[in-house]
């Protein structure tokens, strides 16, 4: 990467956007370029860290173990993002795994190199660590917001909800306020009688019908404002349904990655809840059939 491109990248990083160009240019000599192939682990959860990373191209998946070998995605980072910043505050073990998504190029800043850079420009230290606190605060707010949403959904799923449409309407009421910006949403459920996906709940005034013609199989952003995610069928031949969401304003790639990760979590929770509703409905129907069955010998 040529010096001008490197400086432009560093200028795009929120952590460094208050550093004057002249001093920022001196940071280049402390940065080590590193390349990773798709799927390569940059660092493991629990490993000892000593470096901050800046993404120059490609993407990085930040994920965490939740049970056994199961991993939960925390973020997908792209060019201009930084990660691993906690090691600049104290020498702690990595709290998550970082993995390359596609061919990925990074700039690595070792903690000792950062100390040398700041000692050579002590007037920058206060601004740098002030920006670092803001980065950490932003990520904490996002994590707190998602935890609050999951807590709200968990309480909702404990309620005795009788039908899928009722559940979906209540879920949209809970989820949309947790997303950044203004959103519309529509939820569709599979109808076994006509073998189609019927509208089950909606919120906002956006017309989703034109989007339904060519939906992908996997969760995806259809464009910078519209997102699709299926509600998995858990072994069935078809999905339970799907969600379509529309953001009133076009979202940045970072915001799309954040919202997509959150909505995928919601979809998996919804699929399990719909499975439970189906099970209770089928059990209730079986009991009613038993009660209405005639007694005695057939004539």
Features:
single chain; 299 residues; alpha+beta; 11 strands
Termini, distance in Å? 89 Å
Q: Give the low-pLDDT segments.
A: none
How are helices and strands ordered from N to C? HHEEEEEEHHHEEEEEH
Number of E-type strands = 11
Major sheet attributes: 6 strands, antiparallel
Strand content: 25-35%
Mean pLDDT, to the nearest integer, reads 81
Range of helix content: 25-40%
Structural class, from secondary structure content?
A: alpha+beta
Globally, the shape reads elongated
Structure annotation, total helices: 6
Gyration radius from CA atoms, angstroms: 24 Å
What's the layout of helices and strands?
Layout: H1 3-12, H2 21-27, E1 31-36, E2 41-43, E3 51-67, E4 70-77, E5 82-83, E6 97-110, H3 111-120, H4 125-157, H5 164-175, E7 183-191, E8 196-203, E9 220-223, E10 226-231, E11 241-247, H6 253-292
Antiparallel strand pairs: 1-6, 2-6, 3-4, 3-5, 3-6, 7-8, 7-11, 9-10, 10-11
In short:
The protein has helices spanning 3-12, 21-27, 111-120, 125-157, 164-175, 253-292, and strands at residues 31-36, 41-43, 51-67, 70-77, 82-83, 97-110, 183-191, 196-203, 220-223, 226-231, 241-247. By secondary structure, it is of the alpha+beta class.
Explain this structure:
By secondary structure, the chain is an alpha+beta fold. The protein has helices at 3-12, 21-27, 111-120, 125-157, 164-175, 253-292, and strands at 31-36, 41-43, 51-67, 70-77, 82-83, 97-110, 183-191, 196-203, 220-223, 226-231, 241-247. The strands form 2 sheets. Strands 1, 2, 3, 4, 5 and 6 form a 6-stranded antiparallel beta sheet that branches. The protein has a 5-stranded antiparallel beta sheet with strand order 8-7-11-10-9, covered by helices on one side. Strand 7 and strand 8 form a beta hairpin. Helix 4 runs antiparallel to helix 5 (164-175) and helix 5 (164-175) packs antiparallel against helix 6. It is elongated and about 90 Å long. The N and C termini lie far apart (89 Å).
